[in-house]
Amino acid sequence: MGFTELANARLETIGFRSTAPRRAVLRAIEAAGAPFTVEDLLASLPDVGRATVFRTIKLLHELDLLCRVPLEDGSVRYQLSEGGHHHHLVCRGCGRFTEFTDLELDARIQEQARAHDFILEGHAVELYGLCRECRGQGA
Amino acid sequence: MGFTELANARLETIGFRSTAPRRAVLRAIEAAGAPFTVEDLLASLPDVGRATVFRTIKLLHELDLLCRVPLEDGSVRYQLSEGGHHHHLVCRGCGRFTEFTDLELDARIQEQARAHDFILEGHAVELYGLCRECRGQGA
DNA sequence: ATGGATGCAAAGACTTTGCAGGTCG
DNA sequence: CGACCTGCAAAGTCTTTGCATCCAT
């Protein structure tokens, strides 16, 4: 079951309607191989209104079906979420992300919170650099 | 030596001019006890033009005198930078940040990069939760 | 049928830019 | 004095909202 069907089913379960524009957005997101900007989506969906694209992205993000990745310059990309908690390696060359999980890293973070008498409710870790493909190409 | 003098000296050294509006922005930043938004600064500096405030913030950020912290909702705060590399504990209650450094955490991050054949050039870690003051107040 | 969803365009929030005039060094 | 800086307002971005219409259930 692809993302489109899965997300669609999930939406219906919660009481949202399955509409043509909504499914079009889901398909476009699934088709996007790399992280995308809202602008990318808008461009690939000329027949869907801006508002609908924004509203759908917001919805999916709230449902954790889409993850939002802040870049260093302050811009934001979205990417299909694999679901669980994870972190990102963001390539400055090609802009792609790789997700990874690291329990030890998370444990260390938890410990820092404890050390500061801080109730940890969430955290974000982003690594920036060059991926294997881009490192050689001077990208 | 306070931030204002330090930053001012630093600016002059690099060839920027010490002007009244610039110093006013520096003073306002130093006076801000907590992280601030650009809007906060603008409000506290009614006699300095918007453009100048934005331009000065940008300048200070580029010089690493100011650090930019992305909140979960996508908004951005600034805070006087203590200089070196560090991470943040961001309180969802009062909005204040605490900076911390953790070599072990950084090492773990470096290792993840290595494991993914990724040239690490930078990273960001943000912890979200409740600080000690806010945890009891249901804030 | 009926309330949620859509699309358009307008309004908003936030930031940058062009330019005439002022100021630091 | 000359280059840099400032302030204003206008122009950009990017995102949200109001509202009449449409459509899934």
Automatic annotation (TrEMBL), chains A, B:
UniProt key word Manganese: no
Organism superkingdom: Bacteria
Entry binding sites for Zn(2+): 91, 94, 131, 134
Localization per Swiss-Prot or TrEMBL: Cytoplasm
UniProt keyword annotation of Plastid present: no
Gene3D superfamilies: 3.30.1490.190, Winged helix-like DNA-binding domain superfamily/Winged helix DNA-binding domain (1.10.10.10)
Pfam families: FUR (PF01475)
Subunit text: Homodimer.
Similarity annotation: Belongs to the Fur family.
Name of protein: Fur family ferric uptake regulator
Organism per entry: Tepidiforma thermophila (strain KCTC 52669 / CGMCC 1.13589 / G233)
Species lineage: Bacteria, Bacillati, Chloroflexota, Tepidiformia, Tepidiformales
